[in-house]
Amino acid sequence: MDIGARALLATALVTAAVTLAGTTATAAPEVPYTERASIAQGDGQLAEASFGAAATDLGVAFTSNGAAYSGDTNGQSDVYYRSSTGTSVVSYAAQAGGGTGDGPSYDPSACSTGRFIAFVSQAANLTTTPRQDHEPLIYLRNRSVGKIGSLPRSYEGVPFTSMGDPAISFDCQWVAFVATLPSTPDHVEQSRVYRYRVYDGSVTPVSQVSEDGSRAAGRPSISADGRYIAYQYAIPHRGGPADHSDIYVRDMDGGTLEKASVARDGGAANRESTGPSISADGRTVAFDSYASNLTRGDTNGSVDVFVRDLDQGRTRLIKGRGRGTFTYGASLSADGLRVAYESGRLADPSAPRQVWLADLPAGRARLVSANLRRGPGDGSSTSPSIRPDGLAVSFESYADDLVPGDTNGAADVFVRHLG
Known about the structure:
Number of strands: 32
Number of helices: 0
Strand order of the largest sheet: 3-32-31-30
Helix content: under 10%
């Protein structure tokens, strides 16, 4: 059988036989190896793009525009979970007899076991009580019992005007997310990061507020126990994207706030930083930055990945392989010792981006988006998501030479097992 039909999990490496979607595999391949996660029930290819991987210890959640199971008839994006037992749909509807929702679902985030998956959906029929609109709302699926519920749509009685960017903690008990309240005489509309507690439904603000509404918070990343939350905090252009943003870490127990994107002299970064990824203990934060003054040796004039040890107050630059490269899309392992990222060439933007994994203590990086000959894939690979233990990386790729039989001509989600 081909690699795409074999077990997705590292547990397959220590068992002589596993059952995947009703098929027995005699043995798992030796690491490193790559397999395609975005396949349908029965292990067939999906004709349309899959993306947005969120790795767990036991599998990977992802979004697909294709129909990954027979009940997917809505023709829109849905969230799925792939594990050793096969592919299951996450965004199925209570109002449609188990079919998929009547609106797109996307942007999954999963806790370490994959038991809970948070995602955004515009479907109105996912719960037993349908809603009357199709605005983006964050849902939380408990896969172990099949239960689904939505996060609160308001704070202190005031409805949110938008919600998104869910990030669930490893222990499955907390969800950080971004939401916006409407303007009032005492409040200017701006996006803020909030923290939701799964077991009592409480919502607590995380990010600070500027009186003039000129600050926008987003892209949260949450520690294993929900205590520390990293996020970006931006000053937006008038009518355009942000021209400067910094990375902050909030200690929800201690109430402290620390900036991670600081210059090497302790001053301000000279350009924007985005996309934080925090370690399980909240001590280490990886992020992307266009700033050139965070560390020595940053001379490419473009974006790079940085790793900040908050306890020691040290920042480390993650350089691309070779001259004239950049790094982007940081995803940090639970122990903070490995970081996955994508890298490309500045002089040739059309050249395929590749995904890499840096071992920080060893000071070396290895290619993740490797093809069947262990060279770079023939299409761009992006958006890595590292498994909590750092031994596997999920990512999306347009390459068709990472596994045998990839002929769909669309982006797929892959898992590279590294051992």
